Amino acid sequence: MAKQKQEMLFGIRATMEAIRSGKEIEKVLIRKGLTGRLYQDLFDLIRDESIEYQFVPAEKINSLNQKNNQGVVTLIAPIAYQEVEDVVPQIMAEGRTPLILILDQITDVRNFGAIARSAECAGVDAIIIPFKNSAKITPDSIKTSAGALYQIPVCRVQNLKTLVRNLKKEGIRIVASTEKAENYYTDADLTLATAIIMGSEDTGIDEALLRLADEKVKVPILGQIDSLNVSVAASLMVYEAVRQRK
User: Fold this and answer.
1) CA-based nearest residue to 136, from 245, 27, 35, 220
2) How far apart are CA 130 and CA 106, in angstroms?
3) In a designed cystine with 100, which of 85, 132, 195, 211 is the match (CB 3.0 to 4.6 A)?
4) In 20-145, which ranges are E strands?
């Protein structure tokens, strides 16, 4: 797969127009110390639309574009995210037994891409990530996914706990992959409508989110290293679902 370039917009007005037109914004980089009425209008719009932003040094902005940047660089998402409220009912309507991956605090884009690759190969119906503290769809994640991110729906939500509660109301069972579990992942019944939560390698799944799970399972670790790469663990989980369902 050819290496892709990150699409970027430069300037305050260009960014405001992109937001208002519904363009999928990955992140807005804002020069530290930027002021003015136009900037304030942009910042209000960013917050109203819950768009991720970051204050960065002028050198960072200028390294991307030295002319007419107005102190603002906007990164455009290469693929549009989908709405979970549309994706889940569609799975149900097609008569499929949902298999969904929820990624909590997984920030490495290459891990994200590798997870998406395994998920698409295993027939996972959707990947759900939070707006904050999560890897995004970027050229690097797309490359690592071998193009799988073009194929599998990725949904972003404001609050994973609210999402999990809503999925449970839809009859979807929540299985959390955690080293704190007593049972192994092969003990879980993954033939049912299931959403699997995977957490980051360093902090795991958020405790409040973990408490909402219907079942907690773990991948056995027999060596000296105390954890698997999260993309490997996710592959084991989704392919166990494939094994059981086939």
Assistant:
1) 27
2) 10
3) 195
4) 25-31, 53-56, 72-76, 99-104, 126-130
- For residue 124, give both structure tokens: 């996972």
Nearest-angstrom CA–CA distance, 200 and 177: 11
Answer whether 157's CB lies under 8 Å from 163's CB: yes
Separation between Cα atoms, residue 22 and residue 130, nearest integer Å: 19
Question: Average pLDDT of each block of 10 consecutive residues along the chain (246 residues)?
Answer: 66 92 88 94 92 92 84 89 93 95 95 97 97 86 93 94 97 96 96 97 92 97 88 97 96
Q: What is the pLDDT of residue 11?
A: 93
pTM recorded for the entire structure: 0.81
Give kind and range of the element (H or E) at residue 216: strand 215-218
Coil, strand or helix at 203: coil
Angle in degrees, 0-180, between the axes of helices 109-121 and 230-245, rounded to the nearest 10: 10
6, two tokens = 């990150």
